Amino acid sequence: MNTTTLTPVCTEEASGTLLNALVAMTLGHEVFIFDDWTHQIGKDKGRNPDRVEQVIAFSPFRAKWVMIQQKGERREIVSIPDYEKDASVSIPILEAAGIGIAPDDSEPNLGMWSATVDWYHTNGSRRWCKCHGSGMLQAGLRCLVASKLGAHHPVPEMLANSMKEKTHA
């Protein structure tokens, strides 16, 4: 349910909210701002706009990026995990993807972490991806996203702007 303008972002430089949302997308989740989604659902179902505003006002998801998670036959809205900071969530994902992570002692990446993964494309050619990050999880998640979505991936403009605001703040 994406009605916003899409903007390509460099997946190998993503961090914070943007990186967490990209990881959720990589795992097959639909991501959106709760308020926008609720307005659209209310409009589609002919709900009273004042009632929709009340639902948003009292929601713990208000003004947050969320994702849809499949629970058996049901789909439910959940917060996007902080993959970049929560190793208990991220490590199993990175291990399953076969991503190797190590400190990078080469110039100009001294003090950074390096993550790599290689795999075979469906046409039989070998593919390889390497990303860097200030932390182990950041490097690994950037590598996961870049290897699955590519070096540049379109995201809603508001999500892309969350990265720009962070770097210019």
Q: Which structural category fits the helices and strands?
A: alpha+beta
Number of strands: 8
Helix content: 25-40%
Helix and strand pattern: EHEHHEEHEEEHEH
Give the termini distance in whole angstroms. 30 Å
List the helices and strands and how they pair.
Layout: E1 6-10, H1 16-26, E2 31-33, H2 34-44, H3 49-57, E3 65-71, E4 74-79, H4 87-96, E5 100-104, E6 112-120, E7 126-133, H5 136-149, E8 152-156, H6 157-168
Antiparallel strand pairs: 1-8, 2-3, 3-4, 5-6, 6-7
Which key terms come to mind for this protein?
169 residues, alpha+beta, Double Stranded RNA Binding Domain, 2 domains, 6 helices, 8 strands
Care to describe what's here?
The protein is α+β, with helices and mostly antiparallel strands and 169 residues long. The chain has 2 domains: 1-27 and 82-169, Double Stranded RNA Binding Domain (2-Layer Sandwich); 30-79, no CATH class. Helix content is 40%, strand content 28%. The protein has 6 helices and 8 strands. The chain has helices at residues 16-26, 34-44, 49-57, 87-96, 136-149, 157-168, and strands at 6-10, 31-33, 65-71, 74-79, 100-104, 112-120, 126-133, 152-156. α4 crosses α5. The longest helix has 14 residues, at 136-149. 28% of the residues are buried. The model has no long low-confidence stretch (mean pLDDT 85).
Summarize the structure.
The protein contains six helices and eight strands; from the N terminus they run βαβααββαβββαβα. With 169 residues, the chain is α+β, with helices and mostly antiparallel strands.
